Hints:
Structural class: mainly alpha
Oligomer: single chain
Order of helices and strands: EHEHHE
Distance between the termini: 27 Å
InterPro entries: UrcA_uranyl
Largest sheet: 3 strands, mixed
Number of strands: 3
Mean pLDDT: 75
Protein name: UrcA family protein
Number of domains: 1
Keywords: Signal
Signal peptide: 1-21
Amino acid sequence: MKKTFAFAAAALAVIATPAAAKDAPSVSVATADLDLTQSVDQEKLERRIENAARRACRLGGFDAETRRAERECRLAMAKNAAKKVELAIAAARSGRFALIKFDGNA
């Protein structure tokens, strides 16, 4: 059974117009090979989410303002994902399949 987590980089709206929030990229993180009842696999998921957020939030600039915007984007995505990851872990522990859509809403 294929399991993935998808989340949108809606935090990009921090540096763009409000219309950009709805155009934020969507990122999927594969979890089919993870057993979320195991702490080692939970850590793998966290690293995958961090890497996906880095890619999604990368703006390509090197100035201080761009770096700040990228950092805020990553932090917002991590905050958004945290609650949903907790739910997925709880569902895995209870033996239920969980497919969680990560979007810009907490």
